[in-house]
Amino acid sequence: xxxxxxxxxxxxxxxxxxxxxxxxxxxxxxxxxxxxxxxxxxxxxxxxxxxxxxxxxxxxxxxxxxxxxxxxxxxxxxxxxxxxxxxxxxxxxxxxxxxxxxxxxxxxxxxxxxxxxxxxxxxxxxxxxxxxxxxxxxxxxxxxxxxxxxxxxxxxxxxxxxxxxxxxxxxxxxxxxxxxxxxxxxxxxxxxxxxxxxxxxxxxxxxxxxxxxxxxxxxxxxxxxxxxxxxxxxxxxxxxxxxxxxxxxxxxxxxxxx
Length: 258
Hints:
Strand order of the largest sheet: 3-2-1-4-7-5-8
Distance between the termini: 32 Å
Largest sheet: 7 strands, mixed
Helix content: 40-55%
Radius of gyration: 18 Å
Number of helices: 9
Strand content: 15-25%
Order of helices and strands: EHEHEHEHEEHEHHEEHH
């Protein structure tokens, strides 16, 4: 009687947080699938529909029906990008957890710059548009770049982070770091990236940034009128984590979710 071989452990979990991405998702998903198929890695792609109202889930499920590497997660009420990424991370099964914006402003191929840093011992590796070696193929309009510099100043002042760019939507985690960090998040909006790095710092996880190629998609949902909300989120992070220690999650708690 032959024995069925156990499935190979998943090396990479890629999370796509999506909100009404029916237009951009098909091409991005195909590009990611083609790339990961050629890497030789064992992987899964988690499409997280953040309570959207378009055909994102329908499109993703059609792909998942043909490709066992694709998993679709959805909840009914829109919660924000931070919640979507955290939701995906709690269901990830890989030894590495990467989240990427669905527009692939940071091309999936840039993962090759991040992975070696985990292998060197870092717990978290973040893509950066702000380093000297970064290549901005398609830049943002000048007023958005000015706003970005103001935002970075506020992040440094209020939250104490020294990275040149905390907001690039391409970040890679060890499974252990992801398991501990994401359940602690309290911000569901755009500044969740900042809270991720603050929590990581307080838990003693090591983080490094690497330069990447980046192409502005021109369809960012973050507008200048959202600045007051962004400031409120940063103040909340500062106040919430002042003198407070994040909790660590046990392996049993993590396995109970996935």
